[in-house]
Design brief:
CATH class: Mainly Alpha
Transmembrane segments: 38-60, 90-108, 120-138, 145-164, 170-191, 212-235, 261-287, 299-322, 328-347
Strand content: under 5%
Number of helices: 14
Keywords: Cell membrane, Membrane, Transmembrane, Transmembrane helix, Transport
CATH superfamily: ABC transporter involved in vitamin B12 uptake, BtuC
Shape: globular
GO cellular component, one term: plasma membrane
Family: Belongs to the binding-protein-dependent transport system permease family. FecCD subfamily.
Number of domains: 1
Distance between the termini: 50 Å
Helix content: over 70%
CATH architecture: Orthogonal Bundle
Largest sheet: none
Subcellular location: Cell membrane
Order of helices and strands: HHHHHHHHHHHHHH
Radius of gyration: 23 Å
Length: 356
């Protein structure tokens, strides 16, 4: 006859281990379901905001007319408004918002500092200073200005990284703040060397705007994101380990060159977005914390990208129609509402992070 297992025997330990494993699996399934719900909700919200931006406003376009226009039909008035104003603004807002959101979230996650966004550490201002100098002092335009913005962002990022050294952290943030101040001084110097017409042009560019951008510029941004985002997806698998610290990440097999490459990709994401839409304030700064708050403290680059795109589209729509007879750049709107919302998040304690 088989004896019944007594308390404290191996059978009890096996049962306890099995229960623990089942609990872990249930927790993981619940986290995955929650993540899918959040991402699905953000996707639906972005689709709705995109539709509102394209279909509604001063000139309302019906869905059948939009489909006819996209199919090649020429509807007097509507075709021009959709293809030359509404649709390019909405598409650029989505692409630039994704780039800002993903790039900012990578900075904050890899450096383990919510202040280490491209806005704060000087990357965005480096791109702005280079582009403004190219426009005002060099007389450049088009592709050359975009190239100058990318090179400016890369230059500032390399200087900040060299000054901060291998330890990074708050040292990197302080170095970035110093470089941002230097770049701001360069921008102010450029303003003293241009006439009134160029001042208006530079102010519009520095505010960050998706208005009046050519389809060719949008196409270049789309190609750049088509290269950078898949690379980000491959490199970002190391993010959960990087959040635990450099030493722990190294112990888990994450090499420093991989980390540096991920930061370089983040710089390029922000740089190409600035080159296309200007330095839109607070989008890169806020997208990561908002996405983490929605995901209960978990870092997710896809969520940050969706939040960035949603903020850009909604901000552009508000800027276009909030004030009668005044088309505000999207950067003005995000700057006005970004800081108070960040303070609200900090006050409620929703900016904590946890590895995904």
């Amino acid at each position: 006859m088989t004896a019944l297992p007594l308390p404290g025997r191996p059978a009890d330990a096996a049962d306890a281990a099995g229960t623990a494993v089942a609990d872990v699996r249930r927790a993981r399934r619940g986290a995955r379901r929650s993540r899918r719900r959040v991402l699905g909700g953000l996707t639906c919200a972005l689709a709705a905001a995109f539709a509102v931006r394209v279909l509604l406003g001063d000139y309302t376009v019906t869905v059948p007319d939009l489909l006819r226009i996209l199919g090649g039909a020429d509807i007097p008035g509507a075709t021009y408004i959709v293809l030359e104003s509404k649709l390019p603004r909405a598409v650029l807002a989505v692409l630039a918002g994704v780039a800002f959101g993903v790039g900012g979230a990578i900075f904050q996650t890899v450096l383990r500092n919510p202040l280490a966004s491209p806005d704060v550490v000087g990357v965005s201002l480096g791109a702005s200073a280079a582009a403004v100098s190219a426009i005002a002092l060099g007389g450049w335009e088009g592709w050359s200005v975009s190239a100058a913005a990318v090179l400016g962002a890369l230059g500032v990022a390399l200087v900040v990284r060299a000054v901060a050294g291998r330890r990074g952290g708050f040292r990197l943030v302080l170095a970035g703040i110093g470089m941002a101040a230097a770049m701001q001084s360069l921008v102010q110097y450029v303003f003293t060397r241009v006439d009134e017409h160029d001042v208006q042009l530079l102010l519009r560019w520095l505010a960050g705007s998706v208005n009046g951008v050519a389809w060719s510029t949008i196409g270049v941004l789309a190609i750049a994101l088509g290269v950078l985002l898949p690379l980000t997806a491959v490199l970002s698998r190391a993010l959960p380990a990087l959040e635990l610290g450099d030493d722990t990440a190294a112990g888990l097999g994450v090499s420093r060159p991989r980390t540096e490459l991920l930061l370089l990709v983040a710089v390029l994401l922000v740089a190409v977005a600035v080159a296309a839409a200007g330095p839109v304030a607070f989008v890169a700064f806020l997208s990561g914390p908002i996405a983490r708050a929605l995901h209960r403290g978990r870092t997710t680059l896809l969520g940050a990208g969706l939040v960035g795109a949603l903020v850009m589209v909604v901000g552009d729509h508000v800027g276009a129609y909030a004030v009668d007879d005044l088309n505000l750049p999207v950067g003005v709107v995000t700057g006005a509402f970004g800081a108070p919302f960040l303070l609200w998040l900090l006050a409620r304690g929703h900016t904590g992070r946890r590895a995904a």
